[in-house]
Amino acid sequence: MAQKKITESKGRGRPRAYDPQTALQQALGVFWNTGYSGASLDSIATAAGMNRPSLYAAFGDKHALYIKALEQYWESASAAMQEALMDKNLTLKQALLGFYEGQLSIYFSGEGQPRGCFAIGTATTEAVEDSAIREVLADRLSRLDADLETRLRAAVSAGELKDDVDPAALAVLASSLLHSISIRARAGKSRTELTELVRNAVNVMCGV
């Protein structure tokens, strides 16, 4: 299906067209770098290459735009997670290592200091006072735990994990490691250091 374009009048002549997904990705980058509170509509509009009225017409106010950016980030991150976790040709250890390495690639994307996870870095701060952001964050974390639990239950059934392992509890632990490496990336830990941390943690989770 062709991507719908946003048009913006630019004085005389033909209106300029904008790709909504590209504009949203640019807005996400501003939120990621500055946080929700630190992002101004002017800075977002500049990054997206749109004027403020066009930005509002396309996405709504700053809050609505942030929610859309948060949901887009989770959709992209979740696709990478699913690719690793649901590959039946991988052992549990291989799947988990791929799962974390895929997210580290996201955390270390962009220029300058690693930004970590967009959701953990920005939504956790706003969730304290903002119920809408809190609901999105809680829902996506629950989905993440559920995906990990599904993979871990399959590992128990396949004999990769002991029968007395609690997949639900281990899933929360595996999810917590993801949050930890995100914070550590933002705090200055190198990718090499975090990759080693992941390997050690996965060995523990897999009983190696």
TrEMBL record:
Residues 40-59 bind DNA. One of its GO terms (molecular function) is DNA binding. Pfam families: TetR_C_13, TetR_N. The keyword Acetylation does not apply. Residues 17-77 form the HTH tetR-type domain. InterPro entries: Homeodomain-like_sf, HTH_TetR, Tet_transcr_reg_TetR-rel_C_sf, TetR_C. The keyword Transcription applies. It comes from the Bacteria. Keywords: DNA-binding, Transcription, Transcription regulation. PANTHER family: HTH-TYPE TRANSCRIPTIONAL REGULATOR YJDC, TRANSCRIPTIONAL REGULATORY PROTEIN. This is TetR family transcriptional regulator. It comes from Pseudomonas frederiksbergensis.
